[in-house]
Structures are given as C-alpha cells and as structure tokens.
Amino acid sequence: MPLHALRRLLTATSAAAGALALGLTTTPAQATTPLDYAALGDSYSAASGVLPVDLTSPLCLRSTANYPHVIASRTAARLRDVTCGAAQTKDFTEAQYPGVAPQADAVGADTDLVTLTIGGNDNGTFINAIVACGTAGVLSGGHGSPCKDRYGTSFDDQIDATTYPALKTALRTVRAKAPQARVAVLGYPWITPATADPSCFVRLPVATGDVPYLHALQAHLNTVVRRAAEEAGATYIDFAEASAGHDACQPVGTRWIEPLLFGQNVVPVHPNALGERHMAERTLSVLGLG
Fold first, then answer.
1. Mean pLDDT throughout 173-197?
2. DSSP tag of 115
C-alpha cells in the first residue's frame, strides 16, 4: 500500500475510534421527571355525574374525565386523585366516609402540584341556596325575589363566619404537608347568568329577582376562596370571565354547568365534561404547564 494511502487510513481509523469513545463516555440527556400531582376537592373537582365513573372509590362519585385527569394527561403527571363529591374543608383532615382517607393524606413533601376546588359544601351553601331558591321560585311562579326576601344575607354571613376560616385552615394544612408544591385553588364557574333568562325557568326554576341574588352569592364565595388562597400562598384560578356565557341556562355544547332539571348529567347543577375540560385548560394556562 502506498505510504500516503496508509496515512489516510490510519487518520480515518483514529477519528472513528475517537468518535466512538466520545459516544460511549457522553451521558445521555435525562428524561424530564414527571410531576407528582395530588388532586383534592369536592364534586366540582371530582366531576360528579360525568361518565365514566372511577370505580376505585364509588362513594365519591368521581369521574375519570374530571379536570385533574385532563391536567394529568396533558402534562404526563403522576396523578393521585382523591377528589370526592360532597367534600367539605373538614374532609381534608377527617375521613369523609368509612374507608375514604382524609384528603390531605394524598399530599407529601415530594408533591409537586396540588389542585383543588373546595368551600361550596361548607354550611351546605350551594345545595341549601339552590334548593331554597328553586322551591321559592316554583311557589312564586318565577316572579319577584322570594328567596332573597326570606334569606337575605344569611348565606353570605355563614360564608364569612365559618367557610372563610375553614378554608384558611385547610389550605394551611396542605401547605404544611407540601411546602415545595405549587397549589392551585380553582374558583367555581358560574351556575346562573348575571340576570334572569325567562326561557331558563323550566330548567332552573329560580325567580327573576333571585337569579342575580344567587349570582352575587356565588361571586361572594369565590371572593372568599380567592382571599384564602392568596393568604396561603396558593394560586387562585379565576373563572369569573372565562365561564361567563357558559352557565346552566345555556344550550348543550355551550354550557359548562348542567341545570337543575332536564340536564344531561346524573348529578344536576354540576360541571359537565365540557366544563371540566375548560377548567383544566384554564388551570394549565395560568400555571404555564402546557
């Protein structure tokens, strides 16, 4: 072999050997570690009434199409979902049902993300107000403001007196157990429009003057939830603007919340699958997670 050809061969062989050695000694890029995600909260978090049902905890009426599952699927997070229908703030530290552990047990030092919707069941705020105003609306034929006239500020007073301090206690518990986690507290999407829609009375039998009364009550609850979240160092996810025009009086495909009567969910006056998806999407957007 000619000398110049031999030199070229040796040079090429040396370069190839060097490249191989470099490839063997270079550490490959590490895959991103999935988020450890704990989902807490009530039926708005659990998506009670939305199919398919999570059969691992039938008492909680939890759906596998709830917003925590949507968030987990979009972020590839490791989800521990302990959301439960009818949950109150006390159920963060107490067993809600036999065999259902306190929700805060799902949170630990390694938790990266926590989401929750809570507070609407304390004092029976939602169920008591909806039933009271619905009954009054039927008896009045939809006229006047019989619910407001009877109950006045009583629902609001209970929110301030007991729901607000209970929210602060529950959020402090979560923060203490997961000091490094991002905690997102979701507000409640609008159930009623701001003013009465006469065509909605058959589905949501609330008197004309009581529709803005219920709307203001929900706004007050969300304000208290926001305040408690901010004081606990959590991120509040606001739906006041995002859910406007998607209340229970809107048609199928537009509404995020099902009406009291003639709705599509087994559990009325709760988010449908569309609402849960939008709750997830807004949360992801606010948190910058995808």
1. 97
2. E
How many other C-beta atoms are found inside a 10 Å radius of the C-beta of residue 267? 18
User: What span, in angstroms and rounded, lies between the C-alpha atoms of 41 and 56?
Assistant: 16
The answer to whether 60 and 45 have CB atoms below 8 angstroms apart is no
Per the rule left: phi > 0, alpha: psi between -120 and 50, beta: everything else, 37 is beta
In angstroms, the CA 15 to CA 23 distance is 12
> Quick one: pLDDT at residue 290?
72
Cα 222 to Cα 277: distance, rounded to the nearest angstrom: 20
- CA proximity to 281, closest of 43, 289, 187: 289
Provide the pLDDT for residue 31.
56
Which is it for the CA torsion 226, 197, 257, 270, positive or negative? positive
Cα separation of 5 and 259, whole Å?
Answer: 85
Query: Which of 124, 125, 151, 119 lies closest to 136 in space, CA to CA?
Result: 151
**247 and 257 Cβ atoms separated by less than 8 Å:** yes
Q: Distance between CA 26 and CA 51 in Å, rounded?
A: 48
Q: What are the residue numbers of the active site? A: 43, 270
The whole-angstrom distance between residue 184's C-alpha and the CA centroid of its chain comes to 8
pTM: 0.88
The 10s digit of each residue's pLDDT in 21-72 is 434 444 444 457 999 999 999 999 999 999 999 999 999 999 999 999 999 9
* Consecutive H or E run containing 12: helix 3-25
Average pLDDT, rounded, for the chain: 91
Q: How high is the pLDDT of residue 25? A: 42
